[in-house]
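May I ask you to comment on the folded chain given beneath this request?
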Amino acid sequence: MRRAEDCRTMAELRTEIDRLDAELVALFAERAGYIDRAAAIKAGVDLPARIETRVEEVVANVRQHAASHGLPPDLIEKFWRRLIDWSIAREETILGPDSLRQPGEPK
C-alpha cells in the first residue's frame, strides 16, 4: 500500500485505486450482510424496510463523516441515498414492498 503522494506513475496510482476498489466492494458486501440481518429482524417485529427517521439519521451521519474527511457532503449524500435505496430494495425482497408503510402500521 502506497500513500497517494508517494505514487510517481499512473501505473502505481491505478494499482492503488484498484486495491481500494476491491476493499470497497468487500465493505459493501459486508454491509449487505447487515442489511440482510436487519430484514430478518424487521420481519420478526413487523417493521417496514424503509423507516424515514433512520434514513435521515444515516444521511446526517454520512454528511458529517464526509465533511470531516474533506469531501463534499452534498455529493456524498446523493451517493449514499442511492446506497440506501438499494439496501431498502434488498430488504423488500425479504419483507415485501412495504416501503410506504410506517412502523406500527398494519400491512
In short: The CA atoms of residues 39 and 94 lie 7 Å apart. The two ends are 50 Å apart (CA to CA). The chain is about 70% helix and 0% strand. The helical segments are 10-45, 52-68, 73-95.
